[in-house]
Specification:
Layout lengths: L2 H15 L1 H10 L17 H13 L3 H16 L4 H6 L5 H15 L10 E8 L2 E8 L5 H16 L4 E8 L19 E8 L3 H8 L5 H4 L6 H7 L4 E3 L5 E4 L1 H10 L13 H4 E5 L7 H6 L4 E6 L2 H11 L15 H11 L7 E9 L4 E8 L4 H6 L13 H6 L1 H43 L2 H8 L9 E15 L6 H22 L6 E6 L2 E6 L8 H19 L4 E17 L5 E5 L1 H11 L5 E5 H9 L3 E10 L3 E10 L12
Parallel strand pairs: 14-16
Antiparallel strand pairs: 1-2, 2-4, 3-4, 5-6, 5-10, 7-8, 8-9, 9-10, 11-13, 11-14, 12-13, 14-15, 16-18, 17-18
Helix pairs in contact: 1-2, 1-4, 2-3, 3-4, 4-7, 11-15, 20-21
């Protein structure tokens, strides 16, 4: 499966559900990729896995998402001009349905390793059509439904209702068909009924009457037809070869040098020819007669292949040469000598047409040859090809065409690689930008702003949180102000970096640093019922960090208080998440009136800490600016003596 499908799905999911849902889906599906290359191949299982992941996240069914994915791809491929390719297939939706296989054949020039399904219309009426889908992948029948409905809606402005009439080997959610007893994958076959307004198509294509001038034309012999199409085949109702073009007979002799050319006539077509496309159907009269608008590819089998095929079917094939009286020995010997050079098998491409007058099928075809090299490999010359049409011109231009095509593909692949690198780099920059943004404002607030919420609406009140302040103390001074400033910066960087490592969301959030003061809060922006306990652990951890740094003359004063606050985003240029309220002021006073390497808390906070088992010592009455006298406590240690406050005075 090529990345163009996944790119379309990604764009649609981002547009419909947002980036968060897409990331969750990738994680749930076990996909570590965030960027998909248009021309790179990925596992077929990725699409059903993403559908299952999105189903689990959103509650919609997996089938709904497979249909959604099919619709998404049609919307997306218009960016590459493929919608124009579909429109060019015909005026009516039925014209497109007849040409699906041909479109896939053309797409193989761009996507060389594409494993396309096969689709044929088997019934057409004024109310719609019956389509048969064949594939080696299971679970994608719903995906096809989405594609067909979206193409009908967007390109042909009509609504299509699709229902499944029959289904074989289509395992829901799978990507590979079931294994057959004989080995290999079973073909997934799904028969759809498509209901849509098909009256115009039936009137213009099916119920059309011949012009009177055509009815007056005299009959034409089949030999004239074989002269015009020297590689044509005529088959009767038993699928036996009744006539063949001169060049096809010569090619058959080249590939079966040990056999008589007369054996070709009257033989079963399957003895010497293999149906390559459409895939998944048998070479029968009913199928060929029904699929007259489909391009067929038939391979002429070589002698060894014929023998193997015959032995497998239990029939006897005589490989001894048999020259009849009416054969030209010199011509046969010349052709036989050409056939001894190990030639490639010829691939014939054309249409099966039913001729009512002779009750026969005529395969009007020409060899599928791209350039002069291939022409030599199959043992043909330019004058062997049809004089009409563009067969000869295509061979002449094959060299330059293939060279240009290879060059274009190489350029596209290079551009795709560059695009993939650019997208990966952009993704890296985005992650760095996100990290920078989350360092300024909380992640939950940032996500709300991304979704278009007004910054004023981020303002929120909290009934109770715990606010902490910590101020770095330096006892050493220097006469050199510049040297002292640089030392202070290094000290603050080391201390605050150590504090940052202690901050873990949602237990605590770093609000800001101002000068030598570090501010943190627990209980906002993420509500945390254990905010007092987590702040106590954070304060003791800060004290331990300063001790472990062992910086000469450096200590820390810490204080915190519990109460209600209001928080929100302030500013546009450098937005910050700020806290407001008397609780903030009181917590700041707890820090400023504390002692170096000690943790001071208010009486209200101390009562809550005791419930968690923290060890505290009563300090006494402390004069607090704006509050008067307040009872405060020293926090000595955590529960059961853990996190004991160190004596660093």
């Amino acid at each position: 499966m090529y990345g163009i499908i996944l790119v379309g799905i990604k764009n649609a999911v981002l547009l419909e559900y947002g980036e968060l849902v897409w990331k969750q889906a990738l994680h749930t599906a076990g996909c570590k990729l965030t960027v998909f290359n248009t021309y790179q191949q990925y596992p077929d299982s990725l699409i059903p896995d993403l559908a299952a992941a999105l189903s689990a996240i959103t509650g919609r069914s997996i089938d709904d998402f497979m249909v959604f994915f099919g619709r998404c791809f049609v919307r997306f491929f218009s960016n590459f001009g493929y919608d124009e390719l579909i429109k060019a297939t015909g005026r009516y939706f039925c014209d497109f349905l007849h040409s699906v296989d041909n479109i896939h054949l053309q797409m193989r020039f761009t996507y060389r390793k594409m494993k396309s399904p096969s689709m044929q219309l088997i019934e057409v009426d004024e109310q719609g059509a019956v389509l048969v889908y064949r594939s080696t992948r299971s679970g994608f029948s719903k995906y096809l439904r989405g594609q067909l409905m979206e193409i009908a809606k967007q390109l042909y402005n009509m609504d299509v209702t699709i229902k499944v009439l029959e289904s074989q080997n289509d395992v829901p959610g799978g990507t590979a068909g079931p294994i057959s007893i004989q080995g290999g994958l079973k073909t997934v076959i799904v028969k759809y009924r498509l209901d849509f307004d098909n009256r115009d198509y039936m009137q213009r294509r099916v119920h059309i009457t011949a012009h009177p001038s055509q009815l007056q034309l005299s009959p034409v012999s089949s030999s004239v037809l074989l002269d015009l199409f020297p590689f044509a085949l005529i088959l009767n109702e038993q699928m036996r070869i009744t006539a063949a073009g001169e060049k096809l007979i010569e090619s058959w002799i080249l590939n079966n040098a040990t056999r008589s050319p007369t054996e070709l006539m009257g033989s079963k077509v399957t003895e010497y020819f293999k149906l390559r496309r459409p895939t998944g159907i048998t070479f029968t009269w009913e199928n060929m007669k029904r699929l007259q608008t489909v391009n067929f590819e038939i391979q002429l089998l070589k002698g060894s292949t014929v023998q193997e095929s015959a032995e497998a079917s239990g029939t006897h094939v005589d490989l001894k040469p048999s020259i009849h009286e009416h054969d030209d020995p010199s011509k046969l010997m010349s052709i036989a000598r050409r056939g001894s050079q190990g030639l490639r098998s010829i691939l014939l491409k054309g249409e099966m047409r039913y001729i009512k007058d002779i009750n026969s099928l005529v395969f009007l075809c020409s060899p599928l040859i791209n350039n002069l090299e291939e022409l030599r490999e199959v043992g043909l010359y330019l004058n062997d090809l049809n004089t009409h049409g563009l067969s000869r011109e295509m061979v002449f231009s094959g060299f330059s065409h293939n060279s240009r095509l290879d060059l274009m593909c190489e350029r596209e692949e290079k551009r795709a690689e560059e695009l993939e690198t650019s997208l990966a780099l952009a993704d890296s920059w985005k992650r760095q930008g996100d990290e920078l943004l989350y360092s300024m404002i909380p992640r939950s607030i940032a996500e709300r702003l991304r979704e278009g919420q007004n910054p004023l609406e981020t303002c929120q009140s909290f009934e109770e949180v715990t606010v902490l302040f910590a101020e770095i103390q330096e006892s050493l001074t220097s006469d050199d102000s510049i040297k002292y400033a640089m030392t202070t910066v290094n000290t603050l960087n080391a201390a605050f970096s150590a504090f940052d490592e202690l901050i873990q969301s949602p237990m605590a959030y770093k609000v800001e640093t101002v000068g030598k003061v570090y501010m943190a809060v627990s209980g906002a922006p993420d509500v945390n019922p254990c905010h007092v306990q987590h702040t106590g652990d954070l304060a003791l951890g800060m004290l331990q960090s300063i001790h472990d740094l062992n910086l000469p003359g450096v200590g820390v004063k810490i204080g915190f208080h519990t109460g209600p606050i209001v928080a929100g985003i302030v500013g546009l240029k450098v937005p910050r998440y700020c806290l407001f309220g008397d609780t903030v002021n009181t917590a700041s006073r707890m820090e400023s009136s504390s002692d170096t390497n000690k943790i001071q808390v208010s009486g209200y906070t101390a009562n809550k800490l005791r419930k968690y088992g923290f060890k505290l010592t009563f300090r006494g009455q402390v004069s607090v600016k704006g509050k008067g006298e307040m009872e405060t406590f020293w926090l000595d240690a955590g529960p059961s003596g853990s996190g004991k406050r160190l004596n660093m005075s």
